[in-house]
Amino acid sequence: MRGGRRTLAFAAAGVLVIAAAGWLALRALRPGDGARAPGRPAVAGRARGEFVGAAKCATCHQAEYAAWKGSQHSLAMQEASDSSVLGDFGGATFAYAGVTTTFFRKDGGFRVRTDGPDGTLADFEVKYTFGVYPLQQYLISMPGGRLQALSIAWDARPKEQGGQRWFHLYPGQGIEHTSDLHWTGLQQNWNFMCADCHSTNVRKGYDAASNEFHTTWSEIDVSCEACHGPGSRHVQWAKYPRWLAALRWKNEGLTAQLDERRGVRWTHDPATGQPRRSEPRRTEAEVQVCAQCHSRRAQVAEGYVAGAPLLDYYLPSVLLPGLYYADGQQKDEVYTYGSFLQSRMFHAGVTCSDCHDPHTQKLRATGNPLCTRCHSAARYDRPAHHHHPLGSVGAQCVSCHMPATTYMQIDARRDHSIRVPRPDQSVALGVPNACNRCHTDRSAQWAVERLRGWYGHQPSGFQHFAAAFHAAEEELPGADSALAAVFDDSTQPAFVHASALARMAERTDPDAVEAALRGLDSPDPQVRHAALTILERLPPEQRVSPAVPLLSDSSRAVRMEAAWVLAPVAHGLLGDEARAYARASEEFVASQRYNADRPESRVTLGTYFALLGRLPEAEAEFRSVLHLFPRAVPAYVNLADLYRSQGRESDAEQTLREGLAVVPQDPSLHYALGLSLARAGRVPDAVAELARAATLGGTAEYAYAYAVALNSSGRAEEAIRVLEKALARAPGDPDLLFALATFHRDAGDGAEALRYAEALERMHPSDARARALVESLSTSR
Length: 781
Fold this sequence. Notes:
By secondary structure, the chain is an alpha+beta fold. It contains 36 helices and 17 strands. α20 runs antiparallel to α21 (512-519). It is globular and about 85 Å long. The two termini are 32 Å apart.
């Protein structure tokens, strides 16, 4: 079954169950956006020390403290005051979606009059500022301990740059109070979406019973200990003679010693001009400390401190469609980490602080001198290399190698995959390229010819996966083998290997299982995690041997995925295997409970209980979702399928109709209802619902189901037309090709049937049913 991975694995074939994205749900906004006044300060476990605060650090580290003070980290979140609020609260107004919002002062505080959760105008007090440049948002306290981020932000840039104005983060979208993107909605909630990255030592404190937050922090901003870990043991270390302190405390009493650059020099290779690190980087500690916030990721547990394994607390997103272009360039907001991991720079040993001062967050040099600290200026900072006039925008290294994309309307962020321009891939694959970002009046082919004229060839760069990822996205012939080749390419980073496996998990290639079995032995936890996701396509009993060892993996995210994959057969595990499963299962459940403020996590937990056979608990989870989040479509679909598995078809139908009463245009609800009606023998009604799903959803899966229903009703010609129309949108879809071949065969058109069967075999050579179909059709002719 294509689509999302969190499904109810019950017996009936063909039943759609919506994926509960759950703990894989990735942050839809930047790493911080919405706050509550702290209760008693949260502290780390005593084994790791306690948080002591930046003021304590400043007593010894005055220069570092002074550099940090006033940085974006230190201003990430502040109490609203005359000194922290940058926006115009002098009666300024802003109109959006038929609502006029007014910003004003009252009783010494800052107020906003705007549409609230019920759509009516009301006055709200600004409690905190959020961010500082190039924009500043404002946080408003709501019932239940929630802090919400106002979607109207202040443009903090100078007026001559278009700033000093109010603007909406979703212009032209008409976001109303019923939307999750409304400032009062789920996607603008600070406690989940933002707090972990804009304050230090955050404890979310969600109480599922009361549906309230009791969120705390040790410091309101991103302070010293957010990156260095709790400081109490370091303070003790500093009081002892160094020889004695070294015996008593590791890493100077800190949870991480960020010393990967200590004593390291970068020199130029005389022959190539390329930089070389004086010694290899042996850890990723510094990059992972930055990644806790500067990555697109899911949070699977709280309590991360510097030096802890990243995948014990977070699961970074890999290079997937929607987030990245096929060549790995940033598309959506991905926050640097995933881009950097695929770069030649990371592969060569570069760390974040090679370029960025970690205390000021400013670059270590301005313009090309930043790059020529390591790269030879004589070789690269001259027209013979960049072919632009010295001092021009085109002569800047970042213009060609780190083009910027603007997010949140005004926030330009550079792509940290640090690649060579590839206009040839724009021509072949439709991805952007740095040349045409500036030369917008020229074609990509023009840029190809320019580069070939300058260099005598088309530079290929470091990343070599674009064609394979594009083929998979477009369902082109050879996509499966191309993805396997990327996974087996030892010159590519582990992050790319994990991305190839993740894309293989969404496909039907049987050879993907062989790649997954190799991936389970990878030293990289993200590769092991991605490999486990592919094992879901195996019959449950065949998952046991490869997946059981990973129940005791060194990485929490991997252990949790193993628990999910093995859930259908968990009851059959014995002895040490059963005990390992119990431990991993406890972590899985705890992760969903931690994120129980999110409907996707509750749906995931309900689905997990269903896989374990704990059906009453599953039903309770789904019902809790619908009580708190009436528009949570996956809960309706999964609850209906739970009823179906128990023979309660009328309850399944009623549940789906309840969902359609709330979300009438959702295709997945129409689809599930169509299948329910088909099982009940109400074929005409089923066909109508499946037709509605295919019209609203426009996916190959919905079209396939609708066509099968038509064909089963004796309307083969209509079914074929539906399939052909869908195939035009998804030309390589194996189910559409197989259905067209079999429908034409059954209609007596052997030539057309063979044509589609051969197309299926050509595009999916490892698909056994394609080979069998071609052989049978060829023999019968």
